[in-house]
């Protein structure tokens, strides 16, 4: 099952994707759908009988999460990325938080001001499907609702101003997540995903989640020991090697670059990056109509 949050007439709706269209399950977003104990049956029923439907061509993706949720990210979680950043393998996960305002849709433009070092970080995102508190790994694994694609676009000059990363990770509308949530039952136990990132069609990252120091279930269990996780919360699991800051010399995204993030079997994001200093009035506009890209 594939779930998506779509824009429709000035609001967002949670939908289930079928072979021919998207069927509206309820108003809101996918994270709010997770609060419904019968979300699976609601989505299945909507796929068969919902009168509110959008064709694939009409779909305008919003972030999976649009409301106030816990969005927790793990940094330094792939061994090759840890090495390129000159760090030692961590004993415990390196965690930081984001806000819902940080997220954007699968085809939105990413507009950045006040940073000259905009970097890419392709990631697997995991959505929580049931309440977790002081859970073990088996309970955490059973609580995974599904998987999505994310890119933790990072403003390295801001991130490195202090030892706290938040300010470089929480620029508004700079973290694309989506395009859909593929439910965990589409995969076997402990699935392995390939994670790719491309800049202007040049592959800059490729890793697979077998290399994670802290796999999804371990991460969720760890986080649940100090804060409760609820349905609809989102966990970003870290990025593989190949980020711009780790290149020699370092390289960063330029105005107009296209960022493509792919996880086969899960989905693909395609986002154009606009940075401060743009001369086109249109490219600077923050409204949805001008930020949204056409489908690749």
UniProtKB/TrEMBL annotation:
Listed InterPro entries: FAH, Fumarylacetoacetase-like_C, Fumarylacetoacetase_C_sf
Keyword ATP-binding part of the UniProt annotation: no
Fumarylacetoacetase-like C-terminal domain segment(s): 70-274
Keywords carried by this UniProt record: Hydrolase, Metal-binding
Biased amino acid composition, Basic and acidic residues: 287-296
Region Disordered, residue ranges: 277-296
Keyword Metal-binding: yes
GO molecular function (one): metal ion binding
Gene Ontology biological-process annotations: carboxylic acid metabolic process
Family statement: Belongs to the FAH family.
Protein name, per record: FAA hydrolase family protein
């Amino acid at each position: 099952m594939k779930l998506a949050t779509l824009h429709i007439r000035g609001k967002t709706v949670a939908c289930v994707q079928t072979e021919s269209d998207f069927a509206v399950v309820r108003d809101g977003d996918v994270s709010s759908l997770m609060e419904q104990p019968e979300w699976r049956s609601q989505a299945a029923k909507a796929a068969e009988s919902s009168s509110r439907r959008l064709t694939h061509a009409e779909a305008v993706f919003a972030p999976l999460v649009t409301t106030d949720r816990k969005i927790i990210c793990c940094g330094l979680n792939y061994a090759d990325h840890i090495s390129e950043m000159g760090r030692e393998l961590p004993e415990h996960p390196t965690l930081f938080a984001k806000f819902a305002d940080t997220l954007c849709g699968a085809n939105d433009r990413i507009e950045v001001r006040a940073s000259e070092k905009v970097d890419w970080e392709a990631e697997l995102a995991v959505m929580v499907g049931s309440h977790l508190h002081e859970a073990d790994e088996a309970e955490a694994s059973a609580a995974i609702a599904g998987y999505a694609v994310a890119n933790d676009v990072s403003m390295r000059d801001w991130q490195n101003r202090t030892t706290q990363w938040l300010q470089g990770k929480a620029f508004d509308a700079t973290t694309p997540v989506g395009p859909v949530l593929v439910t965990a039952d589409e995969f076997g136990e402990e699935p392995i995903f390939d994670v790719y990132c491309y800049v202007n069609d040049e592959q800059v990252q490729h890793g697979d989640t077998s290399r994670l120091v802290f796999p999804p279930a371990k991460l969720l269990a760890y986080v649940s020991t100090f804060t409760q996780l609820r349905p609809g919360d989102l966990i970003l699991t870290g990025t593989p090697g190949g980020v711009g800051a780790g290149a020699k010399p370092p390289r960063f995204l330029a105005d107009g670059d296209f960022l493509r993030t792919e996880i086969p079997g899960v989905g693909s994001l395609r986002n154009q990056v606009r940075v401060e200093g743009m001369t086109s009035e249109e490219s600077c506009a923050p409204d949805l109509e001008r930020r949204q890209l056409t489908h690749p």
